[in-house]
Write a structure and sequence with these properties.
about 325 residues, alpha/beta, Helix Hairpins, 6-stranded parallel β-sheet, two-stranded antiparallel ribbon
C-alpha cells in the first residue's frame, strides 16, 4: 500500500554531518598526539647543540665554526672524526655529549615508530570494526559513490532515518567524507568488483543506489548487483541519454538522468507556471513536506480491502 503523507509545519530536521570517527587529523587522532611531541623534541636538539658548542668553546678554545661542526657530528653520530685535537677534559665532554645525542636520536626514532604503528593499527582496527558493523546490517541501502550526489542521497536516507553503507574507492575522498557525514559506514573499495559489493552486505541489503562518475561504471555495478541479488532494488544515475536504456537492460529498476529531470522541471514552469508556483509555495514557503511512504499490510490485517479514507489515517 502506498499513500502520500502531508506533514504540516516545519521540515523534519536533518542531522548535521559531522565526523565519521576520530580521523588521522582529528583532535584525538595519532597525528594530533604526535604534534605536541615535535616542538619538545626539536627543542632538546637545539639545546644540545647550543650547550655542546659553548662547552667546546670554553674547554678547547677553538673557532666557533669548528666547535659547531664538532657538536653537530657528535650529537647526530654521523661520520664521527676529531675536527681538532681534544684534551682529556674535551674527550670526557665529548663522551657525555655523544651519549646525550644517541639518547635523543633513540627517543626521536621511538616517536616516529610509535606514530607509524599507531596509525596503521588504528586504520586496521577501524576497518575491522566497520566490517563487523556492516555484517550485522539487514535491509540497508548501499550507496556507490560519495560525490555531491552520493552525499545528498546519504543525507536524504539519514533523515528517514535508515541504515546505509557508502562504497568509495578514493581514500582521500573517504577522509573528506568523514568531515561531512555522521554515523555512516564507509567501505573503501571499487564498487564494480563483486567482492566489494558482498562486503557491503549486498545479499542482506534492501536496495542499491549507484551514482559513480561514469555511466560505464554504473552499468557494471548494475550488472554485478543484479547477478548477485535478483530481487534487489537498484537505482542508478545516468549522465548520457543513450545510457538510460542500457542501464535498464543491465538490471536497474530506476534510472535517474539529471538532464531529463531538469527538462521535466523546466518545461512545466513555462507551460503551467501557476500550478508549479502553487506547489513551490506549498512545499517551500510553508515548509510543507510531501513524502510518499510504502507500507506492507499483512493479509490478516483489518486494513485489507479498505480505501485510505476508510482507514482514517491521521494527517
Amino acid at each position: 500500500m502506498c499513500f502520500l503523507r502531508f506533514l504540516a509545519g516545519s521540515t523534519p530536521p536533518i542531522r548535521q554531518f559531522g565526523s565519521l570517527s576520530p580521523s588521522r587529523f582529528s583532535p584525538t587522532g595519532p597525528i594530533a598526539a604526535f604534534i605536541p611531541r615535535f616542538p619538545w623534541t626539536l627543542s632538546v636538539l637545539v639545546l644540545l647543540i647550543v650547550l655542546g658548542t659553548l662547552g667546546y668553546v670554553l674547554i678547547e678554545q677553538q673557532p666557533l665554526a669548528d666547535v659547531l661542526y664538532m657538536t653537530v657530528i657528535t650529537v647526530t653520530a654521523v661520520g664521527y672524526s676529531d675536527v681538532f685535537d681534544l684534551t682529556p677534559t674535551g674527550r670526557t665532554f665529548t663522551i657525555i655529549l655523544l651519549l646525550c645525542g644517541i639518547s635523543w636520536m633513540g627517543f626521536w626514532f621511538a616517536n616516529i615508530t610509535s606514530f607509524i604503528v599507531e596509525l596503521d593499527l588504528k586504520d586496521a582496527l577501524k576497518r575491522r570494526r566497520n566490517m563487523q558493523e556492516i555484517a550485522k546490517l539487514k535491509g540497508h541501502v548501499i550507496i556507490c559513490g560519495a560525490g555531491r550526489t552520493g552525499r545528498q542521497v546519504a543525507q536524504e536516507i539519514e533523515s528517514v532515518p535508515h541504515d546505509y553503507v557508502i562504497i568509495k574507492r578514493d581514500q582521500t575522498r573517504i577522509e573528506e567524507l568523514a568531515e561531512y557525514v555522521a554515523d555512516v559506514r564507509v567501505l573503501e573499495g571499487d564498487a564494480t568488483h563483486d567482492h566489494v559489493l558482498l562486503e557491503a552486505g549486498l545479499l542482506q541489503a534492501n536496495g542499491l543506489i549507484t551514482c559513480l562518475s561514469a555511466d560505464a561504471d554504473n552499468l557494471y555495478v548494475c550488472l554485478s548487483a543484479r547477478d548477485l541479488a535478483a530481487k534487489l532494488t537498484i537505482v542508478t544515475r545516468a549522465y548520457e541519454e543513450e545510457s538510460i536504456d542500457k542501464l535498464y537492460r543491465a538490471g536497474a529498476d530506476q534510472v535517474v538522468s539529471s538532464n531529463v529531470s531538469a527538462a521535466n522541471r523546466m518545461a512545466p514552469v513555462v507551460l503551467r507556471p501557476s500550478v508549479v508556483s502553487f506547489f513551490d509555495i506549498a512545499t517551500r514557503a510553508s515548509d510543507l513536506v510531501l513524502r510518499a511512504e510504502q507500507m506492507s499490510v499483512p493479509e490478516a490485517s483489518s486494513a485489507v480491502g479498505k480505501t485510505l479514507s476508510e482507514l482514517r489515517i491521521p494527517h
